[in-house]
Amino acid sequence: MGERLDKYLSSQGFGTRKEVGKLIRSGLVAVDGVPQRDAAAKLDPQKAVVTVEGRPVSYQRHLYIMMNKPAGVLSATEDRRAKTVLDLLPEELRRRGLFPAGRLDKDTTGLLLITDDGDLAHRMLSPKKHVYKLYRAQLDGPVTQEDIQVFSRGAQWGEEHYAPAKLWIDHDPNIAFVEIHEGKFHQVKRMFEARGKNVLTLKRLKIGGLYLDNTLQEGDCRLLDEEETRQIFH
Ligand code: URA
Fold first, then answer.
1. Ligand 1 center to residue 33 CA distance, Å?
2. Ligand 1 in contact with 180 (CB < 6 A)?
3. What whole-number distance in Å separates Cα of residue 123 and Cα of residue 160?
4. What is the pLDDT of residues 171-209, one digit of tens each?
């Protein structure tokens, strides 16, 4: 069967179905060396050599999307009432099978990866893989040396034990930077709660070696390239 040419190009980041339709009709797209002006033409994405204005499209089987998550939306694929991060995706990045790799709380902002690659998500989230996630937390009190020591040994909240975490401050003692490699429920908030502090705002800045692109406004997203995807594991 194969995939429609317009759907294929749209999934590879060449624009909305409407935009790629125009591109195709203008004769700038070729499949296996032959110009193809029919947007509905079918192709095998694994085998076809597609060129746009003479440049070959290197087919990406999976999509990796970086989002700067705003507060007030759920890290879920669907919800009856609340808006989810998938609702924020622009039309050209919507695809079946996309999901947020790891959850941020509704009020947490910052770096969120949305993908259709289950293996990568598993590797990124498994505590055994030690992919560190960096957060910036605004607190209702200053970070103390004792907080830093407790975090480095592993904090405890009720029955819950957390793995050792790095905690530091820059110049404002009420703004903490925390690096953890587990993803337990409300983890950062609870680690601070265990120290008698409340997290007022929380933002994720980094996953592995991949930083949030600080040119992305809250609610915006963009595709990652291969090198950036690799940085997650560096
Ligand atoms: N820790 C939290 O408490 N909340 C998040 O959203 C992420 C980490």
1. 50
2. no
3. 23
4. 999 999 999 999 999 999 999 999 999 999 999 999 999
